[in-house]
UniProtKB/TrEMBL annotation:
<keyword id="KW-0732">Signal</keyword>
<dbReference type="GO" id="GO:0009279">
    <property type="term" value="C:cell outer membrane"/>
</dbReference>
<feature type="domain" description="Outer membrane protein beta-barrel">
    <location>
        <begin position="26"/>
        <end position="177"/>
    </location>
</feature>
<protein>
    <recommendedName>
        <fullName>Outer membrane protein beta-barrel domain-containing protein</fullName>
    </recommendedName>
</protein>
<keyword id="KW-1134">Transmembrane beta strand</keyword>
<dbReference type="Pfam" id="PF13505">
    <property type="entry name" value="OMP_b-brl"/>
</dbReference>
<dbReference type="InterPro" id="IPR027385">
    <property type="entry name" value="Beta-barrel_OMP"/>
</dbReference>
<dbReference type="InterPro" id="IPR051723">
    <property type="entry name" value="Bact_OM_Invasion-Related"/>
</dbReference>
<keyword id="KW-0472">Membrane</keyword>
<dbReference type="InterPro" id="IPR000758">
    <property type="entry name" value="Enterovir_OMP"/>
</dbReference>
<feature type="signal peptide">
    <location>
        <begin position="1"/>
        <end position="22"/>
    </location>
</feature>
<dbReference type="GO" id="GO:0044384">
    <property type="term" value="C:host outer membrane"/>
</dbReference>
<keyword id="KW-0812">Transmembrane</keyword>
<dbReference type="InterPro" id="IPR011250">
    <property type="entry name" value="OMP/PagP_B-barrel"/>
</dbReference>
Amino acid sequence: MKKTIAIAALITASFHVVNVNAADHTFSIGYAQTDISRLNDDLKGLALKYRYEPGRLGLLVGLTGTALNNSTSITVVNNEIVLNGVERTYGSFHIGPTYRFNDMVSGYATLGYATYKVEGKSGKSVTGSIEDSSFAFGTGLEVNLTQHISLNGGVEYSEHLFDSTALTYTVGLGYRF
């Protein structure tokens, strides 16, 4: 009986701790678009962000992934159609501080690592590839629409192959808990 009371008290206390820390965490998912200089088309993909904000200052961690597949030519080999093309991928990992301006608006600045890869393909075979990694930084704002729903937007910058720059724009919808 004493064990049951102790377990019930522990469970009740853990729920109380969760309520004390309510709305400190935000997880968001959104659309990402990378504009690579010297490239006509944009890479499109996904942005994930996690924000921990126990007070005015907090921490943000972000992952971004975008890609673009271009078919440049079609050839026939052994009576089969083969698509030849180029696949471009961009990915980044960012971490940085957040600052809460008021109950609705929070800003962030991040530093991180970004990678840009270009692969030539013939059918399902990779004919050649080149990859470049670099330092990246970003900034953005998060607006709390309600107590549990937030909207965020940001931009990431990095430099890559042949002096090309990557600007990635993100817009996401988050859930605060």
